[in-house]
Amino acid sequence: MAAAPVQGAQVVARISGLLRLVGRSAEGMPLMRLVRESGLTRPTVHRLLTSLAAEGLLDHDPVTGNWVLGPEVLLMGSVASARFPLEDIARPSLRRLAEATGESAFFSIRRGAQTVCLLREEGSFPVRSFVLHEGVRFPLGVASAGTAILAFLPKSEQEELLGRWDDHAGSFAVNHTPQLVRDNLARTRLAGYSVNPGLVLEGSWGMGAAVFDRSGKPAWALSLTGIEPRFKPARQEELGGLLMAEAHRITQQLGGGGDGGRRRR
Question: What sequence ranges are listed for the domain HTH iclR-type (predicted)?
Fold first, then answer.
């Protein structure tokens, strides 16, 4: 976000950006990090934050000093959830995956060129990966959910992102080179599910399967995450089959026109 005068549509974009940054986690974010990540000046960020707090959209935590989401966001989210009953549809699949595998299961949505984690279900295995939780965003093509979605998007959309990969992937571009991403996408299309071999955080592995909307495009993804020893090649096909079965189930419930992540031959 550029540091030009705040007015009109520009202020809406800035406010939206700050809300997304604060909403990355329940703990919120301190002022100086919001300044750094938004690219705005400190006075501008502080003015917008205090205005949002006055409307109940943000709160300032007096203990941590962080800015956190406010009660009005909860109320609006409750109303919006009636239009998007994803909790009711996806939660049973997450529970089945967590119970069957012992790993943590997640449901993510595509938002533009990113994925956002919406739901989480913890598995029984005592050692877990904490890379992913509700509100975490990754660029498409990064992590297992983003790879599963990007793999089944039209080739033109894939190439548009790959053509500006460094800007798109940001700090993740170091471990996700364009050729590595292309190879991952090809393997995902062949198998029907994606595998992230510790590219986001060493030792933290993940697998994902796309969920399709009514037009047949991947709009969501199921994923499993855990430590590397739990994702050995001998187990990947089993986990991939479970992911694809649940992805297909949700696709059907949502009236989707895709194959729910089944193998494409």
Answer: 9-71
pTM: 0.74
Same domain, 171 and 247: yes
**Which CATH number covers residue 13?**
1.10.10.10
CATH number of the domain bearing residue 244: 3.30.450.40
Residues 62 and 91 reside in one and the same domain: no
Q: State the Cα–Cα distance between residues 121 and 60, nearest whole angstrom.
A: 29
Domain C-terminal end among 32, 52, 79 = 79
What CA–CA distance (Å, rounded) separates 151 from 28? 32
Please, which residues have CB within 8 angstroms of residue 258's CB and are 6 or more apart in sequence? Answer: 152, 210, 211, 212, 213, 216, 217, 218, 251
Shared-domain flag, residues 185 and 247? yes
